[in-house]
Each structure stands twice: as structure tokens, then as C-alpha cells.
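Subgroup meeting minutes
Present: P.N., E.W., G.H.
Scribe: E.W.

1. P.N. recapped why we're keeping a running log of single-chain structure predictions: easier to compare across weeks, and new members can see raw inputs and outputs side by side.
2. G.H. added today's entry (113 aa).
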Amino acid sequence: MADIEKDDLEELDEELVVVMTDEEGNEYYYREEMIVPVGDKQYAILIPIEDGEEEEDCGCSAGCGCSEDEVDVYIARIDTDENGEEIYVDPTDEEFEEVRKAYEELMVEDEAE
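Output recorded in log:
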């Protein structure tokens, strides 16, 4: 992923931007789309922020279908570190499936309204 300029991040000031770093030190930027509660834990649905991402958004939720390109989302469990700060960690396979099902149920309920 190419560098994202600081000005680009400032445009997203109302949205939570999550920076993930891989084993090689590469940074990836995500927009927190929504929080999905499952049991006593919370999981974030994260959408990648691409270089040159369109400033205009359809305003729909993830998976709205109004874009020709499908967006891969990232699911992260929200934990708290020893300093009391939120951290995003990979969910287990079981947690991933539970969150996927809960997300789908939320989307069905949202469409019904």
C-alpha cells in the first residue's frame, strides 16, 4: 500500500482510523465501519482506506452493493491492554464465525427497517 498523506487522514477525522502494522513493518489504514457485540466482547468491522479513496461515500453500510467492486473487510476483536487502551487483535476462527453471523443478522434487521 502506498503512503497515505496526513491530509487524507484529517479528512476522515470523524471516523476512527485504525493503523495495522504487519510483520515487515508495513502500515495499513482501516476505517472502523461498525462495532459488533458478541457475548461480552466487541469486534470491529474494519474497511481498508486506499490511496486516493473517493471522498464521496454512498453513505450505505458495508456490503450495500452500490459499488461494483467488493470490499474486503477485516474483523478485529477489541481488547484492552495493560495501559487501559483499546487494541485490535485477530479473532480466533470460532470468534470470526460468530461475528460473521452476528453481522449478517444485523444487516438483515437493518434491511427490514
